[in-house]
Amino acid sequence: MPCSWSYCKAAFSYVMELFLGLHLRCTFGIKGSVTRINFTNAGLKGTLNDFNFSSLPNLSWLNLHNNTLFGNIPPTISNLSKLAFLNLGFNQFNGYIPQRIGYLMDLNVLRLSNNLLSGSIPLNIGNLTNLSLLYLANNYLSGSIPPQLGKLKSLTKLRLNLNNITGSIPASLGDFIGLKVLSLYGNQLSGPLPVEINNLTNLTLFFLSNNTISGLLPEHICHGGILEDFCASNNHFTGRVPKVLRNCTSLTRLRLDRNQLIGNISEDFGIYPKLDFIDLSYNNFHGKISPNCGWCQLLTSLKISNNQITGEIPPELGESNHLHVLDLSSNRLIGEIPKELGNLKSLFNLTLSKNNLSNNIPLEIGTLPDPAYLDLAANNLIGPIPQQLGDCSKLLYLNLSNNNLSQSIPAQISNLVSLQVGLDLTRNLLFGDIPWQLGKLVILEVLNLSHNEFSGSIPSSFDEMESLRLVDLSYNELEGPLPDNKAFREAPMEAYI
After folding, report:
1. pTM of the model
2. What is the C-alpha to C-alpha distance for residues 303 and 92, in angstroms, rounded to an integer?
3. Which of 105, 121, 387, 442 is a plausible cystine mate for 410, CB 3.0–4.6 Å?
4. Which residues are CB-contacts of 32 (< 8 A; sequence separation ≥ 6)?
5. Distance of CA 325 to the CA centre of its chain
6. Residue ranges per domain, the chain?
7. What CATH fold (topology level) applies to the domain 360-497?
8. Residue 375, strand partner residues
9. Please, are residues 448 and 419 in contact by the beta-carbon 8 Å criterion?
10. What is the per-residue pLDDT across 301-329, written as a single tens digit (0 to 9) for each?
């Protein structure tokens, strides 16, 4: 009777013989009785050059995933005529995918992802009509997507992402009517999407990001009502968001950033009760952020920067209890920063820069327990810097520049001992002495206090700020000696004028 390799007690020593180039023989002495080899994560090293495939006529399962195998995939692998499952992923195989792999007519699963494979996708992979899963991602494959892949009518998952594939997406991919996962991101694909893509109504994951695809988004992208993750960022898509997307309540993740899309965000997007992540940045969307915030209940990241959004920030955003990232920068927002944003206890990044926001910075922002990035620059904010910001002990970056903030820097800012990336207060109306306590920010790398009305001397405590790389104190009324610090010694004269 055939033995399953995963149950053979002597399997490990047997495979060691195999990779030393010895002739293959069954552990139990019955040649050809092995039906299954599974050595994923086994620490195997070497090539398959001496793998005697012809000695395994009954092998249906070969899994060598996540080892350190290298060299070419031997064409003689086609001798495994009964193979249904082949996983050579996460190794270091190089060279071409052998053409003869198209002879493995019983293959149901082919996984060659995360290797160093090059060349084009073999046309005769289209002969593997039993394939339900084809993973060739994260290699160096080039050329175009073969139209012959459209013959794989049983395919449910196709991943070709992170290669060097060029050309347009063939219309034949629209024949995968049972396809659930289509991942093409990180290639050099161009041209418009074929209209046949609208036939893929069973998709749950659809990834097109980081190509140069143009034209309109697919009109029936969520016609099946089960799409969960749609990423089309960093392409050349134009036009409006498809109407069907407004009612796609199955969405958990949506990325349309860095395109040329237009439309009204309050009309073109609906209520998404399962949505976790949305990024619409770097487009030409207009309209107002809906006060209903129906998409925000489970949201962890909301990014709508670099659009033409108007109106006020709705206070209801403060009800998005899971929000980690809120980026509304580079829009045309007006009004006050809602104090309710202080309720976002999970917030890590708050970026509202380059808008027309006015009035004071809410004291409640200082009650956020975990913010690392706070950027309110280039608005019309007035009043003092809240001393409560000194309680945001995990801040890495604080930018309040280009506003109309006044009074002195609160000494409590020195409590931000995690501040490393930068402290930027340039172009405000701040005055008085620079607090000596800022010298406690010993890991700070960039300090910009220029274009204010500071007076007095530069604190000698700045001698201790040894991590400083860039400093600018120009356009103030400062006097006295410079700190004995490399950043000050190497700064250009313009930094003190």
Report:
1. 0.91
2. 37
3. 387
4. 26, 55, 56, 57, 58
5. 13
6. 360-497
7. 3.80.10
8. 351, 399
9. no
10. 999 999 999 999 999 999 888 999 999 99
